[in-house]
Amino acid sequence: MTDTLSRRTLLRAGLAVGGGLLLEVSLPVAQAAGKPASPEPFAPNAFLRIDPDDTVTLVVARVEMGQGTVTMHAQLLAEELEVDPASLRVEFAPADRRYDHPDMGIQLTGGSMSTPGSWEPYRHAGATAREMLREAAARTWDVPKAECTAEQGTVVHAATGRRLRYGELVEKAARLSVPSVTLKTKDFRVVGQSVPRLDSAPKVDGSAIFGIDVRVPDALVAVVVRCPVPGGSVKSFDATEARTRPGVLHVVQIPSGIAVVAKTYWHALQASRAVSVEWDEGPLAGFSTDALLETHRRLLREGKGVRVRDSGQADATFGKAARILEAEYSAPFLAHATMEPQNATAHVTDSRCDVWAPTQGPGMAKEQVKRVLCYADEDIHIHQTWLGGGFGRRISQDYILEAVHLSKALSRPVKVVWSREDDMRHSPYRPAATHRVEGALDEAGHVLGWRHTVVSQSLFSEVGQDYVGALLAGAPGFVKSATASLAINAMGSKDITSFEGVDSLPYELPHVAVDFIRHEPGVPVMFWRSVGHSHSAFATESFVDELAHAAGEDPVDFRRQRLKYQHRHRWVLELAAEKAGWGTPTPPGVFRGVAVHQSFGTWCAAVAEVSVEGTRIRVHRVVMAVDCGRVINPNLVQAQLEGAAIFGLSAALGQRISLQEGRVQQSNFHDYPLLRMNESPRIETHIRFNEAPPTGVGEPGVPVMAPAVANAVFAATGRRLRQLPLSLG
Amino acid sequence: MLKLNINGIEREVDAPEDMPLLWALRDVLGMTGTKFGCGMAMCGACTVQVDGVPTRSCVMPVGTMVGRRITTIEGLARDGQPHPCQRAWMELSVPQCGYCQSGQLMSASALLATKPEPSDEDIDAAMSGNLCRCGTYPRIRSAIHRAAELAKQEGIDLARAIGAPEARPEPQPVSQEEEP
Question: Is A581 helix (H, G, I), strand (E, B) or coil?
Fold first, then answer.
């Protein structure tokens, strides 16, 4: 690796959003200490600071993995601060408890929770600063504050035409006490506008620095040879041959395998193939996903679940039913397949650890690194980069720990880069799940009761420990007790991430029972865009369709009638149906399917137009409708829905992680296909605007896709596809 | 030492001939705009142009690149002017995570260089080798049409809109100045 950049230059050069974004986030205090001569910046809180040269810096507490978080946060701050969001200099927050998510109690980006979590704090941050700047101006001019107006980065005294730039006021404002403020409730200026994304420029000229692009002087690159069976470990290895390969400097055993450390990725990758390892394959050695499905079926037959919803008298109703409709739906393990493979760069010295990585959980990373190194909080620095996708994968910090272990062992900076095959075969997956659903019908075919059992793996059993560890580290007492009870409850047998969306079945039915059977095969699992909803909506929205057909009713009408009091479900259902032209003729050979689902506090409906040619399912058009409360940026909402549609279709039409003899059978994009341009349908997105508190949109577009397509395939062929990915073969 | 013409500049590259161009760019030259996605020409994240033809640099031995004209995302803008594709991409807020977009832009600009007014079928054919996990395909399609429109309106010759065409010698490293 050749490097001409000095370390300082690298840190400076870093990322660029508009004015330039540093890898090394210099917090106001540190900056003031380092530059005693320059005037102090005005930093009334952790989310912004204003320099005397008028630069307004926004510190974004959530990570940018494509969902538009930078732009959204800029809008929230700019709304109250009275500046142009495009003028803000953007920094990613370092790992610091001040940037914990207010509801999660941890510095994590996920769960479509960034928008609801930042809606108040960032506007509050902007409003606080604005009021202090107004006060500073009023004192400067010796006029009442009420006569001073903030506009476009200045404070104006209209009566005398005087105007001061924010930069001119910061010194005085910094000496004021922090006031309490009232936030706008109407007449929004920036909120609600389709502000163009603020991160486009560095993403179209190659200058955005993703984790994999970080270049620390003297860093080596490592490729890790991992056990072909997840959870296995090294018995012995022989790296004699690998060590002789060009460019190789070290071969080191770390907890996850044998790392080949070389000058470049290519050198390391080539040599890694020459390492021979004898593995202890561990408990999954004989595991297969075919057998897992049989186990799920057996558990469903045995029916010993925990009841997680019981409304009416479902069991009794089934005893009296004229007919019982029964179906089994199954969903496989799925990989996240972020375009940027997992990677991290670490530099561990005797007294300090720096990590540069694309992670969704800088707070979790810090806690886990702390456990490995036993360093104090202030000696561990997690530097956030742009993320080349996240989708939940980067809530796991496995790749960061590899880099830390290696840098510690070698006493120099090391970058770990996973190959695509590593990523596909050694990542944690969306848990596989099987659903058994029964409908009790009367003689006319009308549904009286719904009984539903889900068998799946608990996500919190996998990540719970790390999550709780990070959650509780250094947290104040009341947070500790509140979150501990939440987390422990979740980690138990009622892990809502396994059955969410089923327990909240919205249809007005007299008798509903939902059971959950937890089965732990030991396959590593992780949150995956839309989590449990990604399979539960497939089961519920497919089965609703089955019930509609059993009753001889139109699928949209059937749903609408049973959503009489679920206004937001009904609104998006009706909007999608109307915009899609539900009930109007389709082109020859094209059929429609519909689905509606609420997840993460957001309501979403989709109509898919599908044709079937032989065994090939082709999606031509998708019409989506969403209700996510107050919309901060319609364009970002639409982009998330478009992306979610394609993400959901990719899973529905072709993705599956299967294991045989403990080995993941897929390895790259030829056998784990993503939708391509020529397969991508026309996507129309519609927003049902209202003034409810804003909710997130990163995930809620995904769950409706599989059932909408499966229901359209039924309309086209009369065949009910109940297994994901959908296949007519 | 291999001599390569990258973005109009003659570069000396200390790399084995069988190293893929991608890693010579990223790990040897420090040009990280070109991305690693799959390592087997399945995803297009590593797309560069070789003599104007979109090429997957992750499977292209660097030794075969001598004497060829290589254009990467860093060289897509010409004389400091963003390529019409880059402008259209920004105008329509195409990138989400942005990781695949270097490759998307190199494929799209190569398409427009040969077909200044591509049809949707042309776009399907030219762009189906570039994966996007965020699902920006609908916007990429619109942005390609928009770039074509911008070029037409402004009389830009899309066949000549890409980067510096002629090789210049490698600039001498400039010492990094500390900020005052």
Answer: coil
